Amino acid sequence: MTPARFTLDSSTPSLWRVTFHNPPINLIDSVMIGELGELFADIEKNQGPAVLVFDSADPDYFLAHYDITAANRSLVDALPPGPSGFHPWIDLLVRLSKLPAVTISAIRGRARAAGSEFALATDIRFASRERAVLGQMEVGFGAVAGAGPTSWFPRLVGRGRAFEILLGGEDFGGALAERYGYVNRAIPDDEFENFVDRFARRVATFDRQALADIKQFVNNVSRPPDEEFPPQMDAFWQAVARPALQARATKAFEDGLQQRSDVELCLGEYVGQFGELKKKD
Amino acid sequence: MTPARFTLDSSTPSLWRVTFHNPPINLIDSVMIGELGELFADIEKNQGPAVLVFDSADPDYFLAHYDITAANRSLVDALPPGPSGFHPWIDLLVRLSKLPAVTISAIRGRARAAGSEFALATDIRFASRERAVLGQMEVGFGAVAGAGPTSWFPRLVGRGRAFEILLGGEDFGGALAERYGYVNRAIPDDEFENFVDRFARRVATFDRQALADIKQFVNNVSRPPDEEFPPQMDAFWQAVARPALQARATKAFEDGLQQRSDVELCLGEYVGQFGELKKKD
Amino acid sequence: MTPARFTLDSSTPSLWRVTFHNPPINLIDSVMIGELGELFADIEKNQGPAVLVFDSADPDYFLAHYDITAANRSLVDALPPGPSGFHPWIDLLVRLSKLPAVTISAIRGRARAAGSEFALATDIRFASRERAVLGQMEVGFGAVAGAGPTSWFPRLVGRGRAFEILLGGEDFGGALAERYGYVNRAIPDDEFENFVDRFARRVATFDRQALADIKQFVNNVSRPPDEEFPPQMDAFWQAVARPALQARATKAFEDGLQQRSDVELCLGEYVGQFGELKKKD
Prior knowledge:
Three copies of one chain form a homotrimer. Chain A is of the alpha/beta class. Chain A has 14 helices and ten strands. In chain A, the strands form two sheets. Chain A has a six-stranded mixed sheet with strand order 1-2-3-5-7-10. In chain A, helix 1 packs parallel to helix 3 (88-98) and helix 6 (149-157) packs across helix 7 (159-168). Chain A is globular, with a radius of gyration of 18 Å. Chains in contact: A-B, A-C, B-C.
């Protein structure tokens, strides 16, 4: 197949590169989920690379977020069930975290909400210091993140910073994301591609069994148990059904959500403007 | 009730502020524990704010530490038992960590020993870069910290730094506390109030159910089990009963402990002077 | 006994210092394992110091790595079994992590592979900012690290950075090691000895029971369960038996492995040169 939502460079057998390409802002939709699922299925049969790098063709957007239109929701619901039996998006991320390949997110541009969830499920996150923007802004719409961040963050950045990221819903630039441990490192943008390429190529020369052993042992003690994820997704869908969230989403769509707009560029800031604090009468 | 140990600003229903005020140095005593317990009881009934900020009226002391006089110990022992059945101080902190409100410590001045324990039990810790001083100096008196730090720190800052903080008993300024993950961030003091206020107000506009969901899921994987705490408190009281600790405390009281004194300002340094290393004869 | 692989300064009863001295590059061999085992046996009987510092007589090598000659392997296999029944090297590190003394690694020079494993099993790691070099380069030879890093790192530095350290096998200087939490702090080299000495002397004046209580409570929640280690060692020996690893080791010995050589100085870089990426035909 030729995927529609990303290009796949498999010209180097031990090092593959997925470059997201879903204009206008690299939304995650049913097609992307389906295509990534097919790719992962191949890799799960140990027919894939030692190292799999994810990057983006759009310097402003790594993966903007989930396509939250009702149309996309129906299409995702219609996808064939994945091996785990979980919702297709959770199924994909659980499988991503277990792939028999080293997975690296090369984050330039925005990776918010489900885009951040994707990055969290990869093994290693490198970020452009100047161009990366990460965050979990779901709370600003009125929802808990649905596919893992409440499981990943406390283990990755500690409870205090996990709460700040998830309850605050703000944007994190590369430097702050590095300081918090949200990403491994923030690399100056003009060195970013070389840095990631050098690291990925190095690891791709290493013994496959050694890489698999390391991944297995580290997963044994650091992967959240699968069963933590579905209740989060349930809480997310319950939030989506609340009228207040629907009202915020409607307004955001009017203001430019899911378009190449200021709203999307500064979505962390935008979601802080829905509400207003009231003094007591 | 009008609390005696802090002021409560509840003029904004979704954002309350507790400002500690217990001169001369904001000691934690039986009255403060009782009053905070009453406040938490209201919030536990979901009659409270979305966000609860703790700060201090004294720029030198957030919460100095526990009042370790025998008089206060008797008064604490006479408090009505809390819902958990634990010692009142542990009961208070366990409840704090589970409150159905986002809790933020805005730390300016000293937060040592029980003052640090209080901050650890809140969700988010912001510190003044220049004015915050955190530490667990109990070891210098000859005691393990009694209400949680041995549970919180390894999960928050990793085992190596947990050991350094707890075994070294030194003072940590804002910048180092941030580097270790002891606090979320250290903010320049002249921006500190605005930073905390802006963050707290933002979160206070968010959907209550979303905030509660996030807190619940993060607590599920990052709150130490309640049963870890009581043995720590038992070990603390055993230490207090040791004559060597009593001798150090007596000397410290003579030198200015629990007064507005150099001893209290530099307590981390002070406790390093009790002992002396002896060479072999 | 007078140890052959290190000097022991026990002139201050509460603060002992082990200074590794095994020219040419402080390899870990059967003699060192045996001698450290005897030392730990004394300390386990509570006949030791409050604080035990490990440093090196060689400013370029803290502990280079394990002596991987077949001769040494036979000698290690011939050591009397340790109390845990595990392989002698795991046995030693498990006991190190449980010692009734505060253990501090003062890392100046290289601490790679088993040298890094040793440091990870101590309570606190201080590093010379300019002279420390840490890393787990086993992956470059084709092996998973055998004695704990896949257990220690995810809990110490988070999953993402654990993967980077273990899958990348690169050298980490003092500053980066500090940023990742691999070490507690990186201290400018000209202040390094004073810093470590001041900290160690301070802790050595503190109450023994308080130190033991802290160590016990922190160990309760942060020490990997013993049973995690043996499967890692099994996977390591399986890797050692693979012909590709043997070929890399043979080449490395020819190039200067285990000698005072450029290969050892820059071993992290060196192991990245074994392989080559091939494009598809």
